[in-house]
Design brief:
mainly alpha, Hypothetical protein af1432
């Protein structure tokens, strides 16, 4: 399944659509987690990576439920992305009602919100993402005011749909993000 853009061109496209550093870091985190899962599951890392990178392409310009990710879907279709990628982007937005059937779709849903929650956990730790434990993440999940917009039930549903134990999933995504801590702004303040 060839992709119409190289990784570099996909990044340039993303930078045209997204100016926010925090949103760019989020999609880079999702890309890293998707590439890690692709490698783990024997899938195409480039396809999975670009799906993660581009899944929120339209979010800065079109953040409403009526628009996101519909504009991203239209842009990916216009560019000639394979239907599997387009469908994964559509399925990550539960409110669109697109059932998650493929491993690609399930993985994107499973890592998207979790990456955001892990970033929130890292921001309040001196060491950032490095050394973040599953136990610490689960403790933060019990605090409703912490990263309040993140739906805790969706975090668990994502792992379950992917067929992975929740603790294992959290540990896997932390490990996927750690090597990219500096680029993701998750390096912490320790010297």
């Amino acid at each position: 399944m060839p992709l119409p853009l190289s990784r570099a061109d996909a990044w340039n496209l993303l930078c045209e659509w997204i100016q926010s550093l925090s949103l760019r870091r989020h999609v880079l985190a999702v890309e890293a987690a998707m590439r890690a899962y692709a490698g783990h599951l024997g899938e195409d890392e480039e396809i999975w990576g670009q799906t993660g990178l581009l899944h929120d392409l339209d979010y800065e310009r079109h953040p409403s439920l009526e628009e996101h990710p519909r504009f991203a879907i239209a842009e990916l279709e216009r560019l000639g992305y394979p239907p599997a990628v387009v469908r994964a982007v559509a399925s990550h937005a539960s409110y669109l009602g697109v059932a998650r059937e493929s491993a690609l779709e399930k993985a994107l849903f499973a890592v998207d919100e979790l990456c955001g929650f892990l970033a929130a956990c890292a921001y309040v730790r001196p060491a950032g993402i490095r050394g973040l434990t599953v136990k610490s993440v689960k403790k933060k999940m019990k605090q409703p005011s912490f990263a309040a917009p993140v739906n805790r039930e969706e975090l668990r549903e994502g792992a379950e749909a992917l067929g992975v134990e929740f603790d294992e999933h959290v540990a896997f995504v932390i490990a996927a993000l750690e090597p990219h801590a500096d680029a993701l702004g998750l390096e912490g303040q320790e010297t």
